[in-house]
Amino acid sequence: MQKFETKQKLILYFMRGSCRYFAMAAVFAALVSLLDMIRPKVISFTVDSVIGTDVPDLPDSILRLIDRLGGMDSLRAHLILLAAAVLLIGLLAAVFRYLFRSTNARGAEIFVERTRNELFRHIMYLPYSWMAENSTGDIIQRCTSDVQTIKRFIAEQLTALVRTIILIIMAVVFMGNIHWKVMLVSTAFIPIIVAYSLFFHTRIGSAFQKADIEEGKLSTIAQENLTGVRVVRAFGREMYERERFEKQNVYYTNFWVHLIRLLSAFWASGDVLTGTQMLSVLIAGSYFCVNGELTAGEFIALLSYNVMLTWPVRVLGRVISEMSKAGISIDRLRYIMNSDTEQDIPNAQTPPLDQEIRFEHVSFAYENGSEQVLRDVSLSIAPGSTIGILGGTGSGKSTLMYLLERIYELPEENGRITIGGVDIRSISRRHLRSNIGIVLQEPFLFSRTLEENIRFALESATLDEIRYAAKIAAVDSTIQGFTDGYQTFVGERGMTLSGGQKQRTAIAQMLIRKSPVMIFDDSLSAVDAETDQQIRQALRENTGGSTVILISHRIPTLMHADRIFVFKDGRILEEGSHAELMAREGLYRQIYLLQSSGGDEL
Ligand SMILES: Nc1ncnc2c1ncn2[C@@H]1O[C@H](COP(=O)(O)OP(=O)(O)O)[C@@H](O)[C@H]1O
Ligand SMILES: [Mg+2]
Question: For 146, which DSSP code?
Answer without folding.
Answer: I
